[in-house]
Specification:
The complex is a heterodimer of chains A (99) and B (327). With 99 residues, chain A is an alpha+beta fold. Chain A is built from 2 helices and 6 strands; from the N terminus they run βββαβαββ. Chain B has a 7-stranded mixed beta sheet with strand order 1-2-3-4-5-7-6, with helices on both faces.
């Protein structure tokens, strides 16, 4: 999947994460994270974001994320939603099921 | 809590928004394109607006602090900004609110006594400027130009500055609020200065004379001299451009026509020398006892008076205008 435009998903409310994904002109993955739990989970959150994008076969993306203590599953969902919107892709793959 | 929005707010909702902001010691910006309010029992308790790529007029009433309303406002405005295709967003707030918006993914760019400018990209401006080539030559000069379009006046000023400086940066305004597109303006400056070797022509991005740093520059017609303030813009220039690029001189052409530009130049002379940047003003290039200006070129172009226009512009601009001016 390829990122075509900037798109957002999520909110900045408590227990959520706001993810903005933009094209990165073939410069790989860049993640800009701002998290209330950066010290404890910063690394893990970055990894979740990266793995979720890899799963969608996205290699080049600029991600800006503002995390307010979201759980892993919420992070994955927000990243996927933003990625689908940013790529214009309509065939959603949530988990293993292809719709 | 209810939410209302308007693109822009109108009628009684606009009046209510203005009254709420006033009670929070903020002024509604008439340029706002989109406003979102949160209401409690029909009373506005939080408000925020979007204009171009800037989130502004953001206020949360005191008794609702700590309920995450600022986060909801910023979320809504960010979504709207992205819906409108604005991927890099800025925010204006009061300097004492730095931490609040810092926790909402906004990072400081510049600050005056009254306004703090933030952007939604960490080190966005530092990254932007670090992509501009550096030089060891000295002294280093700079010009910030719109070149709408590129004239003989611009060219002569650039040539004389290039002669006096070891290296010169020509920063071409990127904001798309001019007759000619930023791509065309930039290309013409590059083409017309190819004979000079000690210069770098670079776009200003979102950072100089832009909606974010200097919104009033583009509302010249309204003559809002009172609302006019270029301090943020000059601060961004001094701190984020001049300092890392080693710029110690800023060149300007004297401004006989436009009051906004004249005021800008005046503030520049008050502000930049104190920050180690000399402001060098040169008289306008004159053709047939008339100062060359881009506005005159635009006028002649719109009237199809190509022969009169010919001596006022370099070859590349003339060819471009002959070809229709990118229209």
């Amino acid at each position: 999947m390829e990122i075509q435009q900037t798109a957002v998903a999520g909110t900045m409310e408590s227990s959520d994460i706001m993810v903005t994904i933009s094209p990165n002109d073939g410069k790989g993955m860049e993640i800009d994270l701002d998290s209330t739990v950066e010290k404890q989970y910063g690394k893990a959150i970055r990894k979740t974001i990266e793995d979720t994008l890899k799963e969608l076969e996205i290699c080049h993306a600029r991600v800006r994320a503002v995390d307010k203590g979201a759980l892993d599953c919420a992070i994955q969902a927000r990243v996927k939603a933003a990625a689908y919107r940013a790529s214009g892709e309509q065939a959603y793959r949530w988990g293993d099921a292809v719709k | 809590m209810e939410m209302e929005c308007g693109a822009p707010m109108r009628g009684s909702r606009l009046d209510a928004t203005k009254a709420f902001l006033q009670s929070m010691e903020l002024e509604y910006d008439t340029g706002a394109e989109y406003t979102v309010n949160f209401l409690e029992q029909d009373r506005i308790v939080a408000s925020g607006s979007l204009q171009d790529n800037v989130l502004k007029c953001i206020a949360v009433s005191d008794h609702c602090q700590g309920e995450g309303l600022a986060a909801r406002l910023v979320t809504e405005l960010k979504m709207e900004g992205v819906r409108r295709g604005r991927s890099h967003l800025f925010l204006y707030t009061k300097p004492e609110q730095r931490r609040r918006f810092g926790s909402l993914g906004f990072y400081p760019v510049a600050q005056t006594d009254h306004v703090l400018l933030m952007e939604d990209e960490r080190d966005g401006i530092a990254r932007f400027v670090s992509a501009i080539p550096k030089t060891r030559a000295k002294p280093v000069g700079a010009m910030v130009v719109n070149c709408n379009p590129f004239t003989m006046g611009h060219l002569r000023l650039i040539e004389s500055a290039a002669k006096e400086c070891g290296y010169i940066y020509i920063l071409v305004v990127s904001e798309e609020k001019s007759t000619f597109s930023s791509g065309d303006r930039l290309r013409l400056v590059r083409e017309g200065t190819m004979h000079l070797s000690n210069l770098c022509v670079h776009p200003t991005g979102d950072y100089l004379i832009s909606s974010a740093t200097f919104p009033t520059y583009f509302i010249k017609e309204k003559k809002q001299a009172a609302a006019f303030n270029s301090e943020l813009d000059l601060q961004v220039f001094a701190e984020h451009f001049a300092h890392p690029l080693g710029i110690t001189r800023r060149y300007i052409g004297s401004e006989p026509f436009c009051p906004v530009t004249r005021r800008y130049h005046q503030q520049m002379k008050e502000y930049l020398p104190a920050r180690g940047i000399e402001v060098i003003e040169r008289p306008r290039f004159v053709v047939d006892s008339q100062a060359v200006s881009a506005s005159r070129v635009r006028l002649l172009f719109s009237q199809g008076r190509m022969a009169e226009l010919r001596p006022l512009v370099p070859d590349c601009t003339f060819r471009f205008l002959q070809g229709g001016g990118g229209q």
